[in-house]
Amino acid sequence: MPSILPEGDPAPADGSLPASVADGAAGRSFGVYVHVPYCRVRCGYCDFNTYTASELGGTSRADYAAQAQWELRFGAEVMRRAGLPDRRVATVFFGGGTPTLLPADDLAALLSTVREEWGLAPGAEVTTEANPDSVDEAYLARLAEAGFTRVSFGMQSAVPHVLRTLDRTHAPERVPLVTRWAREAGLDVSVDLIYGTPGESLADWERSIDAALATEPDHVSAYALIVEPGTKLAAQIRRGEVPEPDEDLHAEMYELADARFSAAGFDWYEISNWARGEEHRSRHNLAYWTGEDWWAAGPGAHSHIGGVRWWNVKHPGAYAQRIAAGISPAHARETLSEAARREERILLETRIAAGLPAEVLLPAERRAIPELIANGLIDGRSAIAAPGRAARVIPTLRGRLLADSVVHRLLG
């Protein structure tokens, strides 16, 4: 089941934000995230805030688009009252769950609401996640017509026994079809993979890499399987029904993926993400990693504006009740201190290829840089300032595998 929401400060019913969120806002980009919390089945490894039909408690998917539209309009008004400058939306991302379980017209209507309330910046990136068995040619064409620019398919694996362990419902042969239909509709294509599933061999993983590359995507994500407490997979491992993930095998799988993606013309730009050229990077996700602003609508969605972070009630029923009452669906929030924002920046920007400006580090933290270089965890040339080039902390391949160690060493 989905994990429990964190506690925080009370969130005001009118959604009001402190005046401080406007400080420096003109220099930050603004994005919108829409969480669609529905899935046909619950995958055994997943602890995302998603619900199958039997878990909805009397609420209906048919009502959801109107509820999320209300929150988007509410959010635009809250931001105006806070004195935030007018900013067109640079990126929109529909995630889940499975957003494409909603009719394409519902997603189009939600995007239209974003456009009406804030406007879309020229060249805005508009993405939806999709399961391969949740769309067809007509659906993808309707998304493109509505203004979507990108679709991210949850491929996960090309190997049937791995998909069964993950409780994925699509057939591997479906992926080449939907990626072709998306490209024919004019959409950029990303495929998501998971490695390290119990029982998955290195040869299985290589087969999935080959199958993903054969679809000629613009972007690939590859995530190590994490066994989350409370999931079906965690219970299976506890009972000895499937083996625990092997961290050494995870590392081999990551190195293989990086080598194969690089040979195919993809550049890594975040630990788990590769793109065929800078223009195909996920700008929405980069905004998360670089601390920009976003309003997130939907049950359990987390927003961030100007150092204030808040999260909505989780269950679709509780969310619907808040919307019907005309009050903020936020469950709680927190205002990050300058120290917390700086530490979070170190945590996130040491994950990306652009790296972390060394000037962000305190003098005591900078003293860790020579050791990190010596241990092969960060790029030595980039970490030393030169004429016309500021010093940056950029992880090596080894540093990507040991990202937590890099952060721990910097923060002491």
From TrEMBL:
Give the chief site where it resides: cytoplasm
PROSITE patterns in the record, alphabetically? RADICAL_SAM (PS51918)
The UniProt record lists the Radical SAM core domain at 24-267
CDD domains according to UniProt: Radical_SAM
One GO cellular-component annotation of the UniProt record comes to: cytoplasm
Write out the GO biological process terms: porphyrin-containing compound biosynthetic process
Q: Which Gene3D superfamilies match?
A: Aldolase class I (3.20.20.70)
Cite the NCBIfam families for this sequence: hemN_rel
Q: Identify its protein family.
A: Belongs to the anaerobic coproporphyrinogen-III oxidase family. HemW subfamily.
What is the recorded function of this protein according to its Swiss-Prot or TrEMBL entry?
A: Probably acts as a heme chaperone, transferring heme to an unknown acceptor. Binds one molecule of heme per monomer, possibly covalently. Binds 1 [4Fe-4S] cluster. The cluster is coordinated with 3 cysteines and an exchangeable S-adenosyl-L-methionine.
The record, for PANTHER family, names:
COPROPORPHYRINIGEN III OXIDASE, RADICAL S-ADENOSYL METHIONINE DOMAIN-CONTAINING PROTEIN 1, MITOCHONDRIAL
**What name goes with this protein?**
Heme chaperone HemW
* Organism of this sequence: Leucobacter massiliensis
